[in-house]
Every structure is written in structure tokens, then in C-alpha cells.
Design goal:
The protein is of the alpha/beta class and 235 residues long. The chain has helices spanning 48-55, 78-88, 104-112, 121-127, 143-155, 173-190, and strands spanning 4-16, 21-33, 37-41, 63-68, 71-72, 89-92, 161-165, 193-198, 209-214, 217-223. Helices cover 28% and strands 29% of the residues. Helix 6 links the parallel strand 7 and strand 8. It is globular. 42% of the residues are buried. The mean pLDDT is 94.
Length: 235
């Protein structure tokens, strides 16, 4: 049986703006397993991104507990969370956050220079199908290519988990499929636990498990008996 890479118990997140308290998460109990590709599906404002930020150590809980394997993230200091993010987590966001003045290879090298056991930038870019674009600058690349550089940068430090927040949100369907293929290949070839946030219901069909969010809570968890390849998804 696969072991949980993440486990949350009663996670609540409240943003207090003074007179108004906004509940982003309401008592979330969740397990995400090693080597799985998991999709978190729900409308904007349902709590998906808040949960992903908490799992990635970018945000903290108001109540409840969060575990990465045997480590309790909810008790960690800021310094410990920084080390956790550096050593264990890769992030992919909707916008690519590449350095415009650096080539694809140099953008990936930014991560490998501070990692404990990194891939070579060339290897990471080859994994996402960009071996022929290493010397190109972001402005010379399509949106899908830039997102794949961002994925290469995220995986180059060999993270145990890859957290992706709307990675196809700014892309058309054809380009989005190429990005999803890169994520699927990484999950299959490297065994990286991959969690993808989306509001696009079609993407759920490529996942091992789908977690449905609404109003800061989990409504349903579904396992896919058979999975579609990204190229088979009807957008």
C-alpha cells in the first residue's frame, strides 16, 4: 500500500481582516499518497490554493495539523519551513515566473545551484521535451514552453512532491495538453508525488485520485479505475 506523503487533520484557515473573518478552509481531513498524481478540483475560491500553499509550507494553519510523512509542518518555525520547501517541494504556478534575461538552461540552473542533489539543467529540460530550446530566452518561447521550463526548474532539485496551481490556466487546450503530458511523464518516470489544482473538470480524468472542493471543504474523493492520457482529454 502506498504511504501518505501528506496528511491533514481538521485543517482550518481563517483570514481575519478586522471586522470580517473569512474561512478559506473548514476542517479539512485529507491524505495524499506517495507517487500518485492527484487533482484538486473546484471553483475559484473553494480553498484549493490555500490548501496547496499550506502543504507547500508557504502558509500556515489557523487550526488543525499538517504532516509531511512523519514531520508536522504545522509546528515548524519559518526557518524550518524554508528548509522544507528547499529540500522537498517543487512548485509550478499559473504564471511562469522565469527570469527574462536568462536562458531556459540558466533559469533551471538557479535551482540546481542551491540544491543538495540536483539534476543537471540539461537533464531536467530534456524530461520536459525542451532539449533543443535550452539556449532560448523566455521571450523567444511560447507560453507552453515557458511553463515547461518552469516545470523543469521545479523538478531539477529532485523534490519528493510537486505542487501545481492551475498550471494550464493561462494556456490554450493544445498547449495545455503538452504541459499535462510533461507532468504525467514526471509522475510516471520519477515517481514524484504530483498534486494539480484546477477548475477544469476534464483534467480529473488523468489523475489517480480526484479531490472535489467546495466552500473550503472536501465534498468527495474519487479514484479513477482507468486514467486518460492528457492527449485523450476533451477540453
Amino acid at each position: 500500500m502506498p504511504q501518505p506523503v501528506f496528511q491533514t487533520k481538521g485543517v482550518t484557515k481563517v483570514y481575519d481582516t478586522g471586522e470580517i473573518k473569512v474561512f478559506a478552509l473548514r476542517g479539512v481531513d485529507l491524505k495524499i499518497y506517495e507517487s500518485e498524481l492527484t487533482v484538486l478540483l473546484g471553483a475559484s475560491g473553494s480553498g484549493k490554493s490555500t490548501l496547496l500553499n499550506i502543504l507547500g509550507g508557504l502558509d500556515t494553519v489557523t487550526e488543525g495539523s499538517v504532516f509531511f510523512k512523519e514531520q508536522e509542518l504545522s509546528n515548524m518555525s519559518e526557518r524550518a519551513l524554508t528548509a522544507y520547501r528547499r529540500d522537498h517541494v517543487g512548485f509550478v504556478f499559473q504564471f511562469y515566473n522565469l527570469v527574462p534575461s536568462l536562458t531556459a538552461k540558466e533559469n533551471v540552473a538557479l535551482v540546481t545551484e542551491i540544491s543538495r542533489n540536483p539534476m543537471r539543467p540539461e537533464e531536467a529540460l530534456e524530461l520536459v521535451g525542451l532539449s533543443k530550446r535550452m539556449g532560448h530566452f523566455p521571450a523567444e518561447m511560447s507560453g507552453g514552453e515557458q511553463q515547461r521550463v518552469a516545470i523543469a526548474r521545479a523538478i531539477a532539485k529532485r523534490p519528493e512532491v510537486l505542487l501545481c496551481d492551475e498550471p494550464t490556466g493561462a494556456l490554450d487546450s493544445k498547449t495545455g495538453v503538452q504541459v499535462l503530458e510533461a507532468l504525467d511523464d514526471i509522475n510516471t518516470e520519477l515517481g514524484t508525488s504530483t498534486t494539480v489544482i484546477t477548475h477544469n473538470a476534464a483534467i480529473q480524468n488523468m489523475a489517480h485520485r480526484v479531490i472535489f472542493f467546495a466552500d473550503g471543504q472536501i465534498n468527495e474523493v474519487k479514484e479513477n479505475a482507468t486514467r486518460q492520457k492528457p492527449s485523450e482529454i476533451v477540453w
